[in-house]
Design goal:
With 114 residues, this protein is an alpha+beta fold. It has six helices and four strands. The longest helix has 14 residues.
C-alpha cells in the first residue's frame, strides 16, 4: 500500500459520513456473524468503504453523487471483480433508515462467499 493511499484512507476514516459511521458501528469487532471488516481499505487503485478480506466482499455506500457517476462506479466494480472481490452497494439513506435490512443482506452475501 502506498503512502498516498494510506494517508487518503486515514483522511476518509476521519471524515466518515453518518451512514458510514452507523454501518461501521455494526460491522466492527466481528459483530456481524463473526466476520472481520476493514474500513476505508485500499484495494487495487481504489479505497473500499468496507472490505471483508476472508469473504473477498466489498461493501460500498453511495450518496446522491453516485447517481451521476454510475458509469464510473460500474467500471470500478468491474476492476474490483477482476481482483476477486464481490462488490455490493447500498444507498446511504437505506443504511440510515433500514440498517437491519442492509445488515441482513450483507450477511447473506457473506454466507454465499464461504
Amino acid at each position: 500500500m502506498s503512502v498516498g493511499k494510506t494517508s487518503r484512507a486515514k483522511s476518509l476514516r476521519r471524515r466518515a459520513t453518518e451512514a458510514e459511521t452507523r454501518l461501521w458501528q455494526c460491522l466492527r469487532n466481528r459483530q456481524l456473524g463473526g466476520w472481520k471488516f476493514r474500513r476505508q481499505f485500499p484495494v487495487d487503485r481504489f479505497i473500499a468503504d468496507f472490505a471483508c478480506m476472508d469473504a473477498r466482499l466489498i461493501v460500498e455506500l453511495d450518496g446522491s453523487q453516485h447517481v451521476e457517476n454510475a458509469q464510473a462506479d460500474a467500471e470500478r466494480t468491474k476492476i474490483l471483480d477482476n481482483c476477486g472481490f464481490k462488490v455490493v452497494r447500498y444507498w446511504n439513506a437505506d443504511v440510515l433508515q433500514n440498517t437491519s435490512n442492509v445488515l441482513e443482506d450483507i450477511l447473506a452475501h457473506l454466507e454465499k462467499r464461504k
